[in-house]
Specification:
single chain, 400 residues, mainly alpha, two-stranded antiparallel ribbon, 19 helices, globular
Length: 400
């Protein structure tokens, strides 16, 4: 979820910075022309004039929205750092409490869509802290600001028109349509286009209200996951143990394989239990390399990624879901002292490998097949597990 500060001093600083950088919002007259120019397309998709005018009442571009598009410096974090910040004992406890509070809604949604309650709850927790913070921006004004200023204008213009249609259809009043600076809305942060495709009126009041109705939001999320192929009764993946002498090169070539093939290579569940369906196809994921937790990821993991196309996000959702139903932390600890690399540091790592005689091509900070092969060759020569994992610990080793 994308958050914004409401501090007055912070807002003043952003406006001042925008003026200094020549990034001030367009003049009111230009905004009026922009709004007038939207009406023909809005009318063509069925937006009423009343809803259109109400949505743009008192509209002026939001300076902090444009500042946030420019305030996105490269920020590197390990998967451990990402998960530790989002999956905590307190968050799992809150999820368990919500599971009890919304048991009937979640149970009905599971019957209808096949998605386990803890998975829906984990997404709700990840997106808005179970409704604790839904963004606070007027969605239509935020989308209009992005469109008017030409930031991914085609994409955000379509989302803006769709948001206007949602208001016109009576699902939400324009001043109650709140979300992130980039247009994600409600308890589980649907973009307007996703709302139109997957939101449902779960409580039967005639409106799809993912802002004020928890049943509508949870049911819509279950519907979303179901639409992308959620496999009922199956989990997202398993934490596994990697045997000594494991053939990492072969594992990279395999990419995806049935669980029984991974078993033949010596991989087993950390719990010691058998895999429920040995024929399920999985891929091996080692977010910290051979020295950290390892996972065999199942098809439902990729369904979670349709919500946010990030392995870190999907692993955090899966882990939080497990914690909500009583599971513990990962069995294998994360490697101590590791850190993620910036592009400059990745370039430095490639340069050090090249100086040591390994072919990485032209150092550019992009980790591709040549870099992976060079890393594996260096690791093998240094007596390390040749997992090809690029990390801060590896850079430190090369510097020594």
């Amino acid at each position: 979820m994308i958050r914004s500060s409401g501090l007055f001093a912070f807002g003043k600083a952003i406006v001042a910075l925008s003026l200094v950088m020549g990034l001030a919002a367009p003049a009111h007259a230009n905004s009026a022309d922009f709004v007038r120019g939207l009406w023909p397309d809005a009318q063509a998709i069925g937006v009423s004039r009343q809803a259109f005018d109400a949505s743009f009442a008192s509209y002026s571009p939001i300076s902090k929205v444009m500042e946030l598009t420019r305030k996105q410096p490269e920020f590197s974090q390990t998967v451990q750092q990402y998960i530790d910040k989002r999956v905590t004992a307190a968050q799992a406890s809150k999820g368990a409490a919500m599971r009890g509070e919304w048991a009937q809604t979640l149970g009905d949604a599971q019957q209808r869509f096949g998605v386990q309650p803890e998975v829906v709850l984990a997404i709700w927790g990840m997106e808005t802290n179970f409704g604790g913070f839904m963004g606070g921006n007027n969605t239509i004004h935020a989308l209009a600001t992005l469109t008017e200023n030409g930031y991914r204008a085609d994409f955000f213009r379509k989302e803006l028109l769709t948001a206007l249609r949602i208001v016109s259809d009576g699902h939400i009043a324009p001043n109650q349509m709140v979300g992130s600076w980039a247009g994600a809305m409600g308890h589980t942060q649907f973009m307007p286009s996703s709302f139109m495709r997957y939101a449902i009126d779960y409580n039967g009041d005639g409106r799809k209200d993912i802002w004020n109705s928890v049943p509508d939001a949870l049911g819509s999320t279950a519907n979303y996951l179901n639409a992308f192929g959620w496999r009922p009764g199956e989990t997202w993946g398993y934490e596994v143990k990697i045997p000594s002498g494991f053939d990492f090169a072969r594992a990279r070539q395999m990419e995806k394989a049935p669980l029984n093939q991974w078993q033949q290579m010596g991989i087993s569940r950390v719990s010691g239990r058998a895999f429920p369906r040995a024929g399920d196809v999985a891929r091996l994921y080692m977010p910290a390399g051979a020295s950290g937790p390892a996972f065999l990821l199942l098809p439902n993991f990729d369904v979670i990624k349709r919500y946010n196309n990030s392995d870190s996000y999907a692993l955090a959702v899966g882990h939080l879901a497990d914690r909500i139903i009583g599971g513990g932390d990962f069995a294998t600890p994360w490697p101590a002292g590791d850190y993620a690399l910036s592009k400059a540091q990745r370039t430095e790592l490639q340069s050090l490998l090249s100086r040591a005689g390994y072919d990485v091509g032209t150092p550019d900070g992009v980790v591709g097949p040549k870099t992976r092969a060079a890393v594996m060759a260096f690791q093998a020569r240094a007596g390390l597990p040749a997992d090809g994992h690029v990390s801060g610990l590896l850079l430190d080793r090369l510097k020594r």
